[in-house]
Amino acid sequence: MLCGNWAAEKTSCTEYISERRFLTCVNGRCSFFMWFELEFDARSKSVINGLLRRLKNKDDEHFAEMIKGNDIYREFYKDDSLRRRRKSRSGNILL
Question: pTM of the predicted model, to two decimals?
Answer without folding.
Answer: 0.39
